[in-house]
Design brief:
- The protein is mostly helical.
- Helices cover 54% and strands 6% of the residues.
- Strands 1-2 form a two-stranded antiparallel ribbon.
- This is GntR family transcriptional regulator.
Length: 127
């Protein structure tokens, strides 16, 4: 894995460190990151995305506190050995729930019909 694994949205209302933690949570749940896999260094992620290294360090620290990552002496951060990858579809769907609720709220505010939003979401999922 390299620093490009993260999709940082600088203009998002969600703080960058939370974006990183949630992406780690999803990548682990989907099995794209497996136990023992090393993460890119704080410096690499910060440099690639042009963000403050302390932001990445904070994200990694929070993920470590949540039990997602573990610090390996002399090697860096790795996916914790205790994490279970390949969560059930229900567990993976639960990780999307906040974003789905936000999407639904915004669609209602814009008075968009559900079928229009679902059609567009389907196209995005197929890309």
């Amino acid at each position: 894995m390299d620093a490009s694994m993260f999709a940082i949205q600088p203009i998002s209302a969600e703080p960058i460190y939370r974006q990183i933690v949630e992406q780690l949570r999803r990548l682990i749940a989907s099995g794209q990151l497996v136990a023992g896999e090393l993460l890119p260094s704080v410096r690499d992620v910060a440099g690639f995305h042009a963000i403050n290294p302390m932001t990445v360090s904070r994200a990694y620290g929070m993920a470590e506190a949540d039990g997602l990552l573990e610090r390996l002496r002399g090697k860096g951060m790795a996916v914790a050995a205790t994490t279970r990858s390949s969560a059930t579809p229900t567990q993976r769907m639960a990780l999307l729930e906040p974003q789905l609720q936000e999407l639904a709220r915004q669609a209602r505010e814009l008075e968009l019909p559900a079928d229009t939003v679902l059609r567009r979401l389907g196209k995005l999922l197929d890309e």
